[in-house]
Predict the 3D structure of the following.
Amino acid sequence: MNDIKCECGHVNPYGTILCEKCGRLLDETQKDSKLIDMRYEGGARRSQTYNKTIVDKIWNFFSSVKIGIWLIVLVLAASAIGTILPQEMYIPKTMTAAEYYEETYGWFGKLYYLLGFHNLYSSWWYLALIAFLGMSLTIASIDRIVPLYRSLTKQKVERHEGFMKRQRIFGVSETDQTDTQDLKQRLEKQRYKVREENGSLLAEKGRFARWGPYVNHLGLILFLLGGMLRFVPGMYVDEILWIREGETKAIPGTDGKYFLKNDEFILEVYDKDDKDFSEAIERTGTVAKNYQSNVTLYEKDGETLPGEEVNLKKIKDAQIKVNIPLKHDHYALYQMDYKKDELNTMSFDLINKKTEESFGSMTVDLNDPKPKYDLKEGYSVELESYFPDFEFDDKGTPITKSKIPDNPAFVFTMYTPDKPKGETSFVAIKQTLEPLGENTYKLAFAGIETRNAAGLAVRKDMTLWLLFIGGGIFMIGVIQGSYWNHRRIWIQRRNGQMWLAGHTNKNWHGLKRDIEQVIKGTDIEEPVDQAQDEPSSKKGEVLNG
Amino acid sequence: MNKKKRRLIMRTIILAVLALALVYTLYANFTKDSNQTIKKGDTAPDFALVDLDGNKHKLSDYKGQGIFLNFWATWCKPCEYEMPYMDNQYQHYKDQGVQILAVNVDESTLAVEKFVKRHNLTFPVAIDKGSQVLAAYGVDPLPTTFVIDKEGKVVDVLSGSLSEAAIQQHMESIKP
């Protein structure tokens, strides 16, 4: 790990290709090449220099551009695989994920599930890949920006002849009469910054374009940090709230601080005669005009324990429509989904089966039924059992599948003056059973009332500002690196000749035009593009520079 | 040499910071689902519920006694199986400082009352209207039972139907 001492006396770090001071070629293997590799100004990338401890080895691993590109390829491939089948969060909750993937997609679905791709974006290995990419960006940038900064700020005006000769743009003019002060002025007119030393010139412009890629990386790193911030509690909320008309519920993700009441859910469709939509309506049946939830937002007042009655303080009434969320305290509630016409109440008439005479009607609240309903004097109905989501189990006993009244069934006992012991009737939708013998009376179905439920998305994202800053810096970096070029022109007087060399990181045509302007009318000949003269020169290089 | 040492320290620090960020992200990602779930060893969150007879049950008032906290629903068969066993053991342990509290998952009062009457349950049954207690405990499958000792610490979380022997054993374990 020895430092390299150049003939000019400057001591360069190990791995340096061009002397930091005079530009003499230090790498013996490149002695025969016509052009030199100007990447990183021929400076030593820090990672290449030593490989001693485990820390250095890890550092070198992440510093490698090759590794970085592989990480990008892997992240892209993994991200693509995650889109082949829907992720677990988007599949219906009617069965387990294992069953769903196999039943819907066959052996491929089973494999997809077994490999864990149904939860790909939150898998440890995907997050690790992204994190490795972030590490690669950080370390590769640090590893290059430090030596690059060093060599760009340390540049000497006078460079060694080997350096000059091996530049892509190079020319020698058989004259020493040229007025360098005139050249300097012409260069400055082209907006070059010119430095002068012993009659030699170094003209430079657009150096800041060299920092473009690193600014770009910084933006990406900030973007990744913003993504990471989502995992910090309180920074990011993404929940679904299902709320029926008339219900008041705690808003998930707010730690029980906010409550919402659904006053009304409205679904409007376009009129059949609407001239803009009549064609579409004919084809599809209906065209939705508006999905809207009229809600009231409440805040919990005072501390209560879970289960205790909460005091609610009204904050505001609001109308939530698609793309018009209710916003409060960094939370936003979006209209996402709805369920129309959920059963709410059911009405019955108590009638005599023969005479069809009615003895009063009753309405059962399907979410909170009463144990007893009093009708006309002497007539009453008791609700013995209630099955909100009824079915028969394998033994033939009525059971309920859930508490949601999708298919309500009841066991009623009807008390009437002539049947004081009561008659029992099993009532479900479209069926009535009389398990204890023929009845005189029956409960005739008299109507239902339904209500709608709104599905609202609860969002909070405190990381957006960082994502915007990261994205903005990323774009600045792209612009900086794409629309500006770092152009340099060296002019030296050597043994009665004028030597001119030029270098740019891209757009060689632009550099040549600059040089043309500068030497117009002087004795200096136009320099040659040495890359173009080479028989093996790639055509693309001329275009890209 | 000094320069190299400094560089090594810098690299170690940067790598350590990046590694920490990675570890934190992975940790946060894997605990985000279980954050709201009460696990063995946690302190049982306090709550207050009114049972079917109108008595208020505040968990913190039971300090000094063991609590067998059961979450259930009328439509859940496994819940139904263990109810008679729980009732037997309740009779045995209620005077020895172990109480049972059965919390229903926000069903209608009628459905719960009929159920309690049908099974002749003697221990207090409360309905978690609004499911706030359910959310505080992060109950997932039903039935789930939290075995809470006299200090208010969760010593076990049991999901699925329990045998009478298992109920007896768990109630014994939290006897003050």
